[in-house]
Design a protein that fits this description.
2 copies of one chain form a homodimer.
Chain A lengths: L1 H17 L29 H10 L4 H20 L13 H23 L2 H18 L20 H18 L5 H19 L4 H4 L4 H17 L2 H9 L26 H6 L12 H21 L8 H15 L22 H13 L4 H10 L6 H11 L11 E4 L8 E7 L2 E7 L13 E6 L2 E4 L20 H7 L9 E2 L9 H4 L5 E6 L5 E12 L2 E10 L8 E10 L3 E7 L4 E5 L4 E8 L9 E10 L3 E7 L2 E7 L3 E10 L12 E10 L2 E14 L4 E3 L5 E9 L3 E8 L4 E7 L8 E6 L2 E6 L2 E5 L2
Antiparallel strand pairs in A: 1-2, 2-3, 3-4, 4-5, 6-11, 7-8, 8-9, 9-10, 10-19, 11-18, 12-15, 13-14, 14-17, 15-16, 16-19, 17-18, 19-20, 21-22, 22-23, 23-26, 24-25
Helix pairs in contact in A: 3-4, 4-5, 4-6, 5-7, 6-7, 6-9, 7-9, 9-10, 9-12, 12-13, 12-14, 14-15, 14-16, 15-16
């Protein structure tokens, strides 16, 4: 043993010389991804070498020491409280669910504390609780709650059981040497192995898929396999269960297909849902959730089986995934709402703390990640966290500057993308992805707009209050299907009051939108453009969103051009989910005495129509106030377009929905058309000084001056009588193509797919 | 002159010895309220002596230097922009209004900068702008906008013209010696004197009242009088215009009576609306607004006419007023919403900066005020601000700890009060005042509840967007009368769907509620109780609010007992304006397909009924989530009580109202009854960890176990089966009275008006 440890240290020092070892620094945890981990315990997230390093740095690394102090307080409080291992009974939010969840978190932390602090009380606590679980589990039936397609034992779904095992494997690894052989045998025979078999072999519909559920399952089985030294389990984790037949039509609770053509196991889950840019097709909320098992298992594999080179897999897709996730947050670190997602989730979530630390430690020590770790203000108590703490201590942190970025979707990166335009304080998230598996929404070419980290034009997110038991057990509410997933709940086009792909997952999951342009080199005119041709058969819509900074003084505004072409006349609805209170409209409307329900189905049944008017072909303007800021929406209309002011909340018998407003621009009996509008942040209100600044829009008019198959041209006139022309080539997105056009006596020529030109 | 200055300094030093002079400190601005101001310029808010002191401390007092830097930047930017004195045209929020407002602020600041920095560019700027105003004003007609009962010339109302003169007097005072005698004569003859006459002699209906409008008018006339050395104007300011007849029925735009029985002038305005506790009867929002002219004029009088001893007037009511105002703020410094008030106004408002600095300087150097000044992070650039900056620099600041407090209303303190209970993170504001002049609401015995500075059970405030021109010119909206002032818009009792005093100011202004108990010595049981006998003839309601802290671990909760007695059966509605989203109710309700308008008038026409049920005599519970915190309302009901879930927003054609929810408990055909309920903050939700903590109420049941003329007893049972009994003596509020009662086999005896007793 001793010889091996010395050998390891030798390799470590050698490796470090290749990287960052300066000024005679001796073997350090930094850049240690090349360490060949010793085959001893701990070996998952901690290594024998890492533990030595951590102990030697205690008291010298504030971020690590503070985290340690907090974790110690938490675990000490749990120990003080005493162990409780209740009979499983509740859905999420209920006592037994929450208690078991708290238990696995406490176990993982106690294991780590034992290693770092060498205080046996923590090992004793882990051992005692594991023995209680052993006693409970050996005769435990399936969980009494029946809602899940894959019921667990400790929890109502195998997913949560897998969470438990991912954490508990780490605890077991930490106290492995503390236990007698006899004790280990008891735990492995009565608890861990049957537990691993239950969530895999006995629940292949859960385990053998490409889905975040399966990733948790794979990591759980794999990590306990590594901890126990059971290669068969590790193999099952990496490659799935062989020779399993699952019906092609079987679906999970969210309506997702279970059969993934035999693709299963950790590698398959790395292969399929991640794009080459690291975007996870379910969206950032679930990517955040899935990143923990992906990365923690990868870390364990790297430590225990470095020969797999897991972090280099698929051109380092795991590391890219962390980078993508950070780019999918607003200014404050909150995730953008793509597909099912709860508002308020951010990179401060503990799974992102792991992700950032692991990506730093195993992904080349990017100094930008250190600045995110500083914002998180905590690290993981393991080798990765130590590396981050050392990096920060040594002053290596650099700002992570989030820029405009396009993240492709699809395993090969050819199934559309998310385009994020960042300009001034504005962040626009434009979605032209694939469906997003069973958590996808029917919202092709939708978008949301943020101003200084505040959502101004919203994506509703999901209809769910995660872990609030009073609201449907904390699970998805029925309004998630009837409202939140439907197209009308989003800022995108609805044809004939039917959702994209008829709201059918079977259809939607076969298609994706297509990128057209993503051009952000010039800060003052940034363009994202994409096309959707499958949401409605024989209808194509092409949306172009432009972030325009007119001058340095003023806030940027968004130009939104949505061109639709069909083979027959349709009704087109384009909702605009502004958040805040109406200050003024430039149009007269009739407010209804009593709201009317807007429609019968496809989400329309959840909207109350509060007011409406018929447009006269001039611009409509709506100015609203949110968070003491003024915003204006200015839209070109055609004569007889209907303008509907509506509010969410109809057919909501349990007040599950938020009663927020929308404006719907409706074109009836229209075959081809263009929706052109501008969203403009322009002013502020101060309730203390009671002063309004720039309370009025600076846009006098927006006009569609040309619309052919080949070109769409929009004229924008400011209140200072400046006139701008934006022209889009609809059929040729080449950067090299040269164009020449005559519009209203102006001769315009340009190179590339679009041009913005001042006319006067 | 020189001799006088030396003499002044001598007196100053003498005075200081009596107060705080230590360690051989020499004559300092601190404690200088005894200075006899020299009869030279400046003499209003700055004195020759003060200016010397300020100059000598420049660069050594961070809070003063930072304010100076900011003010200099602001004024430099204005100078850079150039002078604009537009023809008056707009309502508030419009260009001409805002520009003139910015001008008077810039003038005041530029004057001060000239004195402090001795840079003539500031004097030049003031002079140039004043000359522009002189040129404009001499032929200026009355303002074109006609809505005001007292139209101004620069602004649409004399009120704003008075604002202008209060500020500009200070600017004039600062550059008085910079101007030639000729220039002064031009300004005084063509601008200041006609201006002062216009807002006083030509608008007695504005000037000669007891009202915050008149206070501004008085201060304006008085300050320009002091600046010009015109004692006739000062006299008019202090005592009003003599021999003016105003119709007894004349009213202002807010419906307030104009005739105040000949009471007029600054002294009358000090006498009438302030209670001996310093509470201003219109409420804190207007007190904040009125404090500036009160204090700035008082400061000028103290400097120029110290023999008036203005700060000692009425037992130092002005200083008490500042203390009352600070006590009328929540944890974050935001004012409680009493009567007409806009949310978000706080002690960070510039008028409170003046108020705090002046109260510190002229009111005995209370070290607690220094901590408020630190939070404000700015000081006034004058003698008072210097005193504060010196106090802070010398480490004298002490925390201003806001405690439970009762502030009496009425000139003599015998017209009811505001009771504020503070317990843990909770602040309860209970209103049992007089009407509050024309800004009063019909909300006897109403309340609002704050948790850590967040309003949880709300007072709607006013229906107005101050200075947002798009919303009715920034003025009061018609919904202020039809909704915000009405009783149903508040958390208090409505009889037969009619507002208190029939919603008539003529009646309401003649009455006030009466204090019954305010007992806050024991932190864990704090009681405020009051009675209203005039809101409805022959109906008496008696409300008792108790802040109870059950144990140290848990948040305090509020017990609310509202006892009503009448001579006939009535319908009683008790609304509960919780803010947030419903998580759960313990009762089944029928949600309407489409909301119904709740009633025809008195504010009911603005409420949509969304759902309702008939209570079965058991408790009703409603748990809601606000700002990631859980709250529960638990109310005892009688069989057949109606429970209505409603929302604001009906008959609101311009979306002027906020669509917020309420629960109304309705008792029909009831003569005498008790509404008993508990409001309980109990848990938190974390959207990052997605964990709920204490999501459920700890109250199992609340029950009215006794209700006679003499006593009301409420039993409270916790989920841990602890039972508490609260008994109230309804007719004897003596602290000394001894009571003995038998309730449900419990013999209870106590001393004082109430008792809270654990039964098991």
């Amino acid at each position: 043993m001793k010889n091996q440890a010395i050998l390891t240290l030798g390799i470590l020092i050698l490796t470090l010389n290749l990287f960052s070892c300066k000024n005679g620094e001796k073997g350090s945890i930094e850049s240690s991804s090349e360490i060949i981990a010793p085959q001893e315990h701990p070996k998952l997230i901690l290594t024998a070498q890492g533990v030595q390093e951590i102990r030697s740095h205690l008291g010298t690394l504030p971020i690590f020491d503070n985290t340690l102090k907090k974790v110690k307080e938490e675990v000490d409080a749990e120990i003080q409280l005493g162990i409780s291992v209740p009979i499983p009974k509740d859905y999420s939010g209920g006592y037994s669910h929450d208690r078991h969840k708290r238990n696995f978190i406490a176990l993982q932390k106690a294991g780590v504390l034992y290693q770092i602090l060498e205080d046996e009380k923590y090992a004793q606590y882990v051992k005692d609780m594991l023995m209680r679980y052993e006693a409970l589990y050996k005769n435990l039936p399936v969980h009494p709650k029946t809602r899940s397609y894959a019921r667990g034992k400790l929890f109502w779904q195998c997913l949560n059981d897998s969470n438990w095992l991912v954490y508990v494997s780490q605890a077991y690894d930490c106290i492995y040497n503390y236990l007698t052989a006899e004790e280990r045998k008891t735990l492995e025979t009565n608890l861990f192995r049957p537990f691993a078999d239950f969530i895999s072999i006995q629940n292949p519909q859960f385990y053998n898929r490409v889905h975040n559920h399966s990733t948790w399952g794979n990591a759980a089985v794999g990590m306990i396999g590594l901890a126990m030294g059971d290669d068969a389990l590790v193999d099952r984790a990496l490659y799935g269960i062989k020779n399993i037949e699952i019906s092609a039509n079987a679906k999970d609770n969210d309506g997702g297909f279970i059969n993934t053509n035999g693709k299963a196991g950790f590698f398959a889950n790395l292969e399929e849902p991640f794009s080459p840019d690291g975007y996870y097709t379910e969206g950032p909320y679930y990517q955040r959730y899935a990143m923990y098992p992906f990365l923690i298992f990868a870390e364990a594999l790297q430590n225990a089986k470095p020969e797999l080179e897991i972090f280099e897999y698929k051109d380092s897709v795991l590391i890219k995934g962390v980078n993508a996730l950070i780019n999918l947050t607003d200014r404050d670190g909150d995730f953008f709402l793509l597909n099912d997602a709860q508002k308020g989730m951010s990179y401060h979530n503990s799974s992102l703390v792991s992700a950032v630390d692991i990506a730093y430690h195993f992904g080349g020590n990017s100094p930008e990640l250190l600045s995110i770790a500083q914002k998180q203000d905590q690290v993981t108590l393991d080798d990765a966290g130590l590396a981050v703490a050392l990096g920060i201590k040594r002053g290596k942190a650099k700002s992570f500057i989030k820029k405009s970025i396009e993240l492709s979707d699809g395993a090969k990166g050819d199934e559309g993308a998310v385009g994020i335009l960042r300009s001034g304080n504005i962040e626009l998230v434009f979605k032209y992805t694939a469906h997003g598996l069973s958590h996808g929404h029917y919202d092709k070419l939708s978008y949301a707009l943020f101003d200084k980290g505040v959502e101004v034009v919203q994506d509703y997110g999901m209809a769910r209050f995660v872990n609030i038991e009073q609201k449907g057990g904390g699970n998805y509410l029925k309004e998630n299907t009837t409202w939140a997933k439907q197209t009308i709940a989003h800022n995108t086009l609805v044809q004939n009051e039917v959702s994209h792909f008829e709201g059918k997952y079977d259809i939607g999951s076969q298609h994706h939108s297509n990128k057209y342009i993503f051009s952000v080199d010039i800060d003052s005119v940034q363009v994202a453009s994409a096309i959707e041709e499958n949401a409605y058969p024989n209808t194509k819509f092409h949306r172009t969103m432009v972030a325009i900074k007119d001058s340095n003084d003023e806030a940027p505004y968004i130009l939104d051009i949505l061109k639709v072409e069909s083979n027959k006349p349709n009704q087109y609805d384009l909702p605009f989910y502004y958040l805040g209170q109406i200050m003024q409209t430039n149009f007269n409307y009739t407010k209804l005495k009593v709201p009317q329900i807007l429609g019968k189905s496809n989400g329309y049944q959840h909207l109350y129509k509060e007011a409406s008017t018929i447009a006269n072909g001039e611009n409509i303007k709506l100015t609203w106030l949110l968070n003491n800021k003024f915003y204006t929406y200015t839209a070109a209309t055609s004569n007889k377009d209907e303008v509907i002011l509506a509010r969410i909340g109809a057919n909501d018998p349990e007040f599950n929905l938020r009663t927020e407003p929308t404006l719907i621009l409706r074109k009836k009996k229209t075959t081809n058309s263009v929706f052109a509008s501008i969203i403009e942040p322009h002013g502020t209100y101060n309730p203390i000084s009671e002063l309004s600044v720039n309370a009025y829009s600076s846009i006098k008019q927006i006009k569609v001056v040309l619309d052919t198959l080949a070109y769409t041209a929009i004229e924008i006139e400011s209140i200072e009588d400046k006139i701008w022309l934006f022209v889009m080539s609809n059929q040729n997105n080449s950067k090299e193509a040269e164009h020449k056009l005559r519009i209203n006596n102006h001769e315009i020529s340009w190179k590339g797919a679009y041009v913005l030109k001042e006319l006067n």
